[in-house]
């Protein structure tokens, strides 16, 4: 079941007192259960650190992180695995290349179901469920369950990773630039399928992206970050009326970021 996420006074700092680098600077943000939030910002703005703090991969120097009613501030990522799922920028990170699609999905089911024997998770009934999950994507992957993940294209592996990450309906789904390594046509397909999955399952989702067009098209809110701070939070009617051009102009005014082809999404 989806959960709210709240960060209160979260600061992440690295280095010595003489050479201190602040990646997140006193962040306060609340995300409602079922809300889909997009995060944009220039390189070094703190976007990935923000999702790493929610995932538990980075423990904040100060502040509190809550998922639902639970204080998870000091819990490392392995102890948040039951609450938080993630799709990474690296298309190889979400699946094991030597395992088949079905075997990869079975491993995701082990996370969902606890310590059930692996052979039971690969039962005929569960394989039929995997087939159904993939068929819902409309990409033909359901007919390749016995194919090793390493033989799939990058976009196909991201689609499998997306399905695996959302099996069992996690409390929070984190999407860390998950289309940036894909060619434009496959990135559009993955984004379209991502939006469908998030909306249909009512997931709480946080998506980091450099692509302004994707940021303008997808999500209920847009957060703009710079120098470790959230400098704008666009929601409601203002979010509904947001266009790519308006977002680029706003980003330039607030973050002072250079607008590159990668940011625009050319």
UniProtKB/TrEMBL annotation:
Primary location class: membrane
GO molecular function per UniProt: ATP binding
Entry's transmembrane regions: none
Top-rank taxon: Bacteria
Domain ABC transporter: 7-252
Keyword annotations: ATP-binding, Cell membrane, Membrane, Nucleotide-binding, Transport
Pfam family, one: ABC_tran
UniProt topology in membrane: Peripheral membrane protein
Localization (cell): Cell membrane
Name of protein: ABC transporter ATP-binding protein
Organism, scientific name: Actinoallomurus spadix
């Amino acid at each position: 079941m989806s959960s709210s996420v709240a960060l209160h006074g979260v600061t992440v700092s690295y280095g010595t007192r003489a050479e201190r680098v602040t990646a997140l600077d006193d962040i306060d943000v609340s995300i409602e259960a079922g809300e889909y939030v997009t995060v944009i910002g220039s390189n070094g703005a703190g976007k990935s650190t923000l999702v790493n703090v929610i995932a538990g991969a980075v423990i904040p120097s100060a502040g509190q992180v809550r998922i639902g009613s639970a204080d998870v501030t000091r819990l490392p990522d392995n102890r948040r695995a039951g609450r938080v799922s993630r799709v990474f920028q690296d298309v190889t990170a979400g699946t094991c290349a030597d395992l088949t699609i079905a075997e990869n999905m079975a491993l995701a089911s082990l996370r969902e179901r606890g310590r059930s024997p692996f052979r039971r998770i690969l039962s005929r009934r569960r394989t039929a469920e995997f087939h159904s999950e993939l068929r819902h994507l409309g990409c033909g992957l359901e007919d390749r369950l016995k194919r090793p993940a390493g033989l799939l294209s990058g976009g196909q592996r991201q689609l499998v990773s997306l399905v695996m990450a959302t099996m069992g309906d996690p409390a929070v789904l984190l999407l860390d630039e998950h289309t940036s390594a894909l060619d434009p046509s496959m990135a559009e397909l993955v984004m379209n399928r991502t939006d469908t999955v998030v909306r249909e399952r009512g997931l709480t989702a946080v998506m980091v992206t450099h692509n302004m067009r994707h940021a303008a098209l997808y999500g209920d809110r847009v957060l703009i970050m710079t120098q470790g701070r959230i400098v704008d939070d666009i929601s409601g009617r203002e979010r509904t009326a947001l266009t790519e051009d308006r977002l680029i102009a706003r980003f330039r005014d607030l973050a002072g970021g250079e607008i590159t082809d990668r940011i625009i999404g050319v």
